[in-house]
Amino acid sequence: MPLGRRLMHPALACEVLGLRLWEEQPADIVAELRTLWSRYGVLVFRRQALGEAELARFCALFGPLERTVRTDWASQAVPEVGLISNLKDAQGQSIGGLGDGEIEWHSDQSYMMHPATGAGLYALELPPEGGTTSWVDLRAAYAGMPERLRREVAKRRAVFSYVKRLAGYQEGSRTISEDAKRQTPPVTHTLLHNHPVTGEAALYLDKTTTVGVAGMGDNAAAALLDEIYEAAVRPEHVYTHHWQVGDLLLWDNGFTMHRREPFDANARRLMKRTTMRLDPSRHIIPEGALAG
Ligand SMILES: O=C(O)CCC(=O)C(=O)O
Protein backbone atom coordinates (compact mmCIF):
# COMPACT_ATOMS: atom_id res chain seq x y z
CA MET A 1 0.00 0.00 0.00
CA PRO A 2 1.46 3.42 -0.91
CA LEU A 3 2.52 5.69 1.92
CA GLY A 4 -0.14 8.04 3.29
CA ARG A 5 0.69 11.62 2.40
CA ARG A 6 -0.71 15.13 2.54
CA LEU A 7 0.48 18.06 0.47
CA MET A 8 1.61 21.02 2.56
CA HIS A 9 2.42 23.01 -0.59
CA PRO A 10 1.38 22.01 -4.15
CA ALA A 11 4.86 21.21 -5.48
CA LEU A 12 7.34 21.85 -2.69
CA ALA A 13 6.33 20.17 0.59
CA CYS A 14 4.66 16.88 1.44
CA GLU A 15 3.78 15.37 4.82
CA VAL A 16 4.32 11.62 5.12
CA LEU A 17 1.72 10.01 7.35
CA GLY A 18 1.68 7.01 9.63
CA LEU A 19 5.38 6.19 10.02
CA ARG A 20 7.09 5.50 13.34
CA LEU A 21 10.59 6.58 12.49
CA TRP A 22 12.12 5.12 15.64
CA GLU A 23 11.38 1.69 14.14
CA GLU A 24 13.40 0.12 11.36
CA GLN A 25 11.77 0.90 7.98
CA PRO A 26 11.14 -1.93 5.48
CA ALA A 27 12.92 -1.72 2.11
CA ASP A 28 9.75 -0.86 0.13
CA ILE A 29 9.00 2.11 2.43
CA VAL A 30 12.59 3.33 2.17
CA ALA A 31 12.39 3.11 -1.64
CA GLU A 32 9.13 5.07 -1.65
CA LEU A 33 10.55 7.74 0.67
CA ARG A 34 13.62 8.12 -1.56
CA THR A 35 11.39 8.56 -4.62
CA LEU A 36 9.16 11.05 -2.80
CA TRP A 37 12.13 13.14 -1.66
CA SER A 38 13.45 13.40 -5.19
CA ARG A 39 10.17 15.13 -6.16
CA TYR A 40 9.42 17.27 -3.10
CA GLY A 41 12.00 19.65 -1.71
CA VAL A 42 10.62 19.25 1.82
CA LEU A 43 9.27 16.11 3.54
CA VAL A 44 7.43 16.49 6.84
CA PHE A 45 7.06 13.77 9.50
CA ARG A 46 5.01 14.68 12.59
CA ARG A 47 4.66 13.18 16.10
CA GLN A 48 8.05 11.48 16.13
CA ALA A 49 9.90 10.49 19.32
CA LEU A 50 13.53 10.05 18.35
CA GLY A 51 16.74 9.67 20.26
CA GLU A 52 19.86 10.99 18.51
CA ALA A 53 20.92 7.52 17.34
CA GLU A 54 17.43 6.88 15.89
CA LEU A 55 17.43 10.25 14.15
CA ALA A 56 20.86 9.54 12.66
CA ARG A 57 19.87 6.01 11.60
CA PHE A 58 16.73 7.23 9.80
CA CYS A 59 18.51 10.11 8.03
CA ALA A 60 21.35 7.83 6.92
CA LEU A 61 18.81 5.93 4.78
CA PHE A 62 19.13 8.81 2.29
CA GLY A 63 22.91 9.06 2.14
CA PRO A 64 26.00 9.05 4.32
CA LEU A 65 25.76 11.48 7.22
CA GLU A 66 28.20 14.36 7.09
CA ARG A 67 29.95 15.94 10.08
CA THR A 68 29.78 19.63 9.16
CA VAL A 69 32.47 22.27 9.62
CA ARG A 70 30.56 23.39 12.75
CA THR A 71 32.07 20.71 14.97
CA ASP A 72 31.37 23.12 17.86
CA TRP A 73 27.61 22.52 17.36
CA ALA A 74 27.92 18.71 17.31
CA SER A 75 26.24 16.52 19.88
CA GLN A 76 28.74 14.79 22.16
CA ALA A 77 26.88 11.48 22.01
CA VAL A 78 26.33 11.33 18.22
CA PRO A 79 28.66 13.78 16.44
CA GLU A 80 26.73 13.49 13.15
CA VAL A 81 23.85 15.25 14.93
CA GLY A 82 24.18 19.01 15.44
CA LEU A 83 22.33 21.21 17.90
CA ILE A 84 20.50 24.29 16.65
CA SER A 85 19.48 26.12 19.78
CA ASN A 86 19.52 29.34 21.78
CA LEU A 87 20.01 27.39 25.04
CA LYS A 88 23.12 27.73 27.19
CA ASP A 89 24.88 25.26 29.47
CA ALA A 90 25.62 25.76 33.18
CA GLN A 91 28.74 27.79 32.28
CA GLY A 92 26.70 30.15 30.10
CA GLN A 93 28.10 28.72 26.86
CA SER A 94 25.75 28.10 23.91
CA ILE A 95 24.96 24.39 23.58
CA GLY A 96 24.53 24.72 19.79
CA GLY A 97 24.34 27.23 16.95
CA LEU A 98 22.22 29.93 15.35
CA GLY A 99 20.76 31.53 18.52
CA ASP A 100 17.38 33.25 18.35
CA GLY A 101 17.80 35.71 15.46
CA GLU A 102 16.43 35.86 11.96
CA ILE A 103 18.27 33.67 9.45
CA GLU A 104 18.24 34.97 5.86
CA TRP A 105 17.48 32.84 2.76
CA HIS A 106 20.27 30.31 2.36
CA SER A 107 21.22 26.88 1.06
CA ASP A 108 23.32 24.87 3.52
CA GLN A 109 26.91 24.22 2.48
CA SER A 110 26.71 26.36 -0.70
CA TYR A 111 30.18 27.61 0.36
CA MET A 112 31.63 24.10 -0.07
CA MET A 113 33.16 22.80 -3.28
CA HIS A 114 31.13 19.59 -2.89
CA PRO A 115 28.10 20.49 -0.78
CA ALA A 116 26.25 17.77 1.14
CA THR A 117 22.74 18.81 0.18
CA GLY A 118 20.40 16.74 2.36
CA ALA A 119 19.30 18.20 5.68
CA GLY A 120 17.10 17.13 8.59
CA LEU A 121 15.76 19.24 11.45
CA TYR A 122 13.95 17.71 14.42
CA ALA A 123 12.02 19.84 16.92
CA LEU A 124 12.33 19.12 20.65
CA GLU A 125 11.53 22.46 22.34
CA LEU A 126 9.81 25.42 20.70
CA PRO A 127 9.06 29.05 21.51
CA PRO A 128 5.39 30.01 21.87
CA GLU A 129 5.73 32.40 18.91
CA GLY A 130 8.14 32.96 16.01
CA GLY A 131 10.91 30.59 14.94
CA THR A 132 8.96 29.40 11.89
CA THR A 133 11.09 28.12 9.00
CA SER A 134 10.29 28.75 5.32
CA TRP A 135 11.54 27.12 2.13
CA VAL A 136 11.46 28.51 -1.41
CA ASP A 137 11.21 26.26 -4.48
CA LEU A 138 13.97 27.27 -6.88
CA ARG A 139 12.52 25.17 -9.74
CA ALA A 140 9.33 27.24 -9.70
CA ALA A 141 11.41 30.37 -9.16
CA TYR A 142 13.39 29.70 -12.34
CA ALA A 143 10.28 28.80 -14.36
CA GLY A 144 8.64 32.08 -13.28
CA MET A 145 11.57 34.37 -14.16
CA PRO A 146 11.51 36.62 -17.23
CA GLU A 147 13.16 35.03 -20.30
CA ARG A 148 15.97 37.62 -20.35
CA LEU A 149 16.96 36.77 -16.76
CA ARG A 150 16.75 33.03 -17.44
CA ARG A 151 19.19 33.42 -20.33
CA GLU A 152 21.53 35.45 -18.13
CA VAL A 153 21.44 32.91 -15.30
CA ALA A 154 22.13 29.97 -17.63
CA LYS A 155 25.59 31.22 -18.56
CA ARG A 156 26.83 32.34 -15.13
CA ARG A 157 28.64 30.96 -12.09
CA ALA A 158 28.22 32.77 -8.78
CA VAL A 159 30.92 33.09 -6.12
CA PHE A 160 29.90 31.69 -2.69
CA SER A 161 31.85 32.68 0.44
CA TYR A 162 31.55 31.35 4.00
CA VAL A 163 33.04 34.60 5.31
CA LYS A 164 29.84 36.39 4.26
CA ARG A 165 27.69 33.72 5.97
CA LEU A 166 29.64 34.11 9.22
CA ALA A 167 29.33 37.90 9.17
CA GLY A 168 25.52 37.55 9.16
CA TYR A 169 25.41 35.25 12.21
CA GLN A 170 24.59 36.46 15.71
CA GLU A 171 27.51 36.97 18.10
CA GLY A 172 28.46 33.52 19.43
CA SER A 173 27.95 31.67 16.12
CA ARG A 174 30.52 33.71 14.18
CA THR A 175 33.81 32.15 15.27
CA ILE A 176 35.05 29.04 13.49
CA SER A 177 38.10 26.84 13.91
CA GLU A 178 41.25 27.23 11.78
CA ASP A 179 40.42 23.84 10.28
CA ALA A 180 36.95 25.05 9.26
CA LYS A 181 38.54 28.16 7.66
CA ARG A 182 40.89 25.96 5.61
CA GLN A 183 37.94 23.89 4.39
CA THR A 184 35.94 26.90 3.20
CA PRO A 185 37.76 29.02 0.58
CA PRO A 186 35.44 30.95 -1.79
CA VAL A 187 34.03 28.67 -4.50
CA THR A 188 31.93 29.06 -7.64
CA HIS A 189 28.83 27.09 -8.61
CA THR A 190 26.67 27.33 -11.71
CA LEU A 191 23.44 29.22 -10.99
CA LEU A 192 21.39 26.65 -12.89
CA HIS A 193 21.06 22.86 -12.60
CA ASN A 194 18.78 20.20 -14.03
CA HIS A 195 17.07 17.74 -11.75
CA PRO A 196 18.26 14.18 -12.60
CA VAL A 197 14.80 12.64 -12.07
CA THR A 198 12.33 15.21 -13.36
CA GLY A 199 14.60 17.13 -15.75
CA GLU A 200 13.32 20.41 -14.30
CA ALA A 201 15.71 23.35 -14.29
CA ALA A 202 16.38 24.91 -10.89
CA LEU A 203 18.33 27.88 -9.60
CA TYR A 204 21.11 27.35 -7.07
CA LEU A 205 21.29 30.35 -4.76
CA ASP A 206 22.23 31.47 -1.25
CA LYS A 207 21.70 35.04 -0.19
CA THR A 208 24.03 34.63 2.80
CA THR A 209 27.08 33.52 0.79
CA THR A 210 26.93 34.92 -2.77
CA VAL A 211 29.50 37.69 -3.06
CA GLY A 212 29.86 37.98 -6.83
CA VAL A 213 29.47 36.47 -10.28
CA ALA A 214 32.52 35.02 -12.05
CA GLY A 215 33.71 37.26 -14.89
CA MET A 216 31.54 40.27 -13.88
CA GLY A 217 32.52 43.48 -12.13
CA ASP A 218 31.31 44.00 -8.53
CA ASN A 219 28.54 46.47 -9.32
CA ALA A 220 27.14 44.54 -12.29
CA ALA A 221 27.29 41.27 -10.29
CA ALA A 222 25.53 42.82 -7.28
CA ALA A 223 22.80 44.23 -9.53
CA LEU A 224 22.30 40.86 -11.27
CA LEU A 225 22.17 38.93 -7.98
CA ASP A 226 19.68 41.43 -6.50
CA GLU A 227 17.47 41.01 -9.55
CA ILE A 228 17.66 37.21 -9.35
CA TYR A 229 16.83 37.11 -5.62
CA GLU A 230 13.94 39.50 -6.07
CA ALA A 231 12.50 37.38 -8.89
CA ALA A 232 13.12 34.08 -7.05
CA VAL A 233 11.61 34.68 -3.62
CA ARG A 234 7.91 35.11 -4.29
CA PRO A 235 5.21 34.08 -1.82
CA GLU A 236 3.69 31.50 -4.18
CA HIS A 237 6.99 29.57 -4.26
CA VAL A 238 7.32 29.51 -0.45
CA TYR A 239 6.24 26.96 2.15
CA THR A 240 6.31 28.13 5.78
CA HIS A 241 6.42 25.48 8.51
CA HIS A 242 4.83 26.15 11.90
CA TRP A 243 6.72 23.71 14.07
CA GLN A 244 5.24 21.27 16.58
CA VAL A 245 7.36 19.30 19.03
CA GLY A 246 8.15 15.94 17.41
CA ASP A 247 8.32 17.27 13.82
CA LEU A 248 11.15 16.04 11.62
CA LEU A 249 11.63 17.86 8.32
CA LEU A 250 13.98 16.74 5.56
CA TRP A 251 14.91 19.17 2.80
CA ASP A 252 16.95 19.19 -0.38
CA ASN A 253 19.31 22.16 -0.60
CA GLY A 254 19.93 21.42 -4.30
CA PHE A 255 16.80 23.30 -5.39
CA THR A 256 15.57 25.14 -2.27
CA MET A 257 16.66 27.91 0.05
CA HIS A 258 15.33 28.33 3.58
CA ARG A 259 15.06 31.08 6.17
CA ARG A 260 13.97 31.38 9.81
CA GLU A 261 11.93 33.98 11.65
CA PRO A 262 13.49 35.25 14.90
CA PHE A 263 11.95 34.41 18.27
CA ASP A 264 12.01 35.70 21.85
CA ALA A 265 15.52 35.33 23.28
CA ASN A 266 14.02 34.29 26.63
CA ALA A 267 12.04 31.43 25.11
CA ARG A 268 13.58 27.96 24.68
CA ARG A 269 14.14 26.38 21.26
CA LEU A 270 16.02 23.12 20.79
CA MET A 271 16.34 21.44 17.40
CA LYS A 272 18.55 18.56 16.28
CA ARG A 273 20.13 18.70 12.86
CA THR A 274 21.58 16.23 10.40
CA THR A 275 23.35 16.62 7.04
CA MET A 276 23.37 13.93 4.35
CA ARG A 277 25.24 13.36 1.08
CA LEU A 278 22.34 12.67 -1.23
CA ASP A 279 22.41 10.33 -4.21
CA PRO A 280 23.30 12.19 -7.45
CA SER A 281 20.99 9.90 -9.45
CA ARG A 282 18.02 11.28 -7.48
CA HIS A 283 19.07 14.79 -6.42
CA ILE A 284 20.77 17.88 -7.82
CA ILE A 285 24.35 17.93 -6.53
CA PRO A 286 26.22 21.18 -7.36
CA GLU A 287 29.83 20.75 -8.44
CA GLY A 288 32.01 23.62 -7.34
CA ALA A 289 35.32 25.09 -8.45
CA LEU A 290 37.75 27.26 -6.54
CA ALA A 291 36.96 30.93 -7.14
CA GLY A 292 39.81 32.46 -9.13
O1 LIG B 1 16.39 26.98 13.01
C1 LIG B 1 15.79 26.81 11.96
O2 LIG B 1 14.58 26.73 11.86
C2 LIG B 1 16.57 26.72 10.68
C3 LIG B 1 18.00 26.44 10.91
C4 LIG B 1 18.79 26.48 9.65
O3 LIG B 1 18.68 27.39 8.86
C5 LIG B 1 19.71 25.40 9.38
O4 LIG B 1 19.85 24.50 10.20
O5 LIG B 1 20.32 25.42 8.29
In brief:
With 292 residues, this protein is an alpha+beta fold. It is 21% helix and 27% strand.
Domain count? 1
Helical coverage, percent range: 10-25%
**Structure ligands:** 2-oxoglutaric acid
How much beta, percentage-wise?
Answer: 25-35%
CATH class, named Alpha Beta
The Rg value, from CA coordinates, equals 18 Å
Report the CATH topology name: Double-stranded beta-helix
Q: Which H/E pattern describes the elements?
A: EEHEHEEEEEHHEHHEEEEHEEEEE
Would you identify the CATH architecture?
A: 4-Layer Sandwich
Tell me about the largest β-sheet. Answer: 8 strands, mixed
Low-pLDDT runs of 5+ residues are none
Strand order of the largest sheet: 1-2-3-15-7-17-4-5
Overall outline: globular
Q: Quick one: CATH superfamily? A: Clavaminate synthase-like
Number of helices: 7
- Report mean pLDDT, rounded to a whole number: 95
Span from first to last CA?
A: 52 Å
Structural class assignment: alpha+beta
Q: What would your notes on this structure say?
A:
With 292 residues, the chain is an alpha+beta fold. Helices cover 21% and strands 27% of the residues. It is built from seven helices and 18 strands. Strands 1-2-3-15-7-17-4-5 form an eight-stranded mixed beta sheet, with helices on one face. Strands 6-16-8-14 form a four-stranded antiparallel beta sheet. Strands 13-9-10-18 form a four-stranded antiparallel beta sheet. 41% of the residues are buried. 2-oxoglutaric acid (AKG) is lined by residues 84, 98, 103, 108, 121, 133, 258, 260, 271, 273.
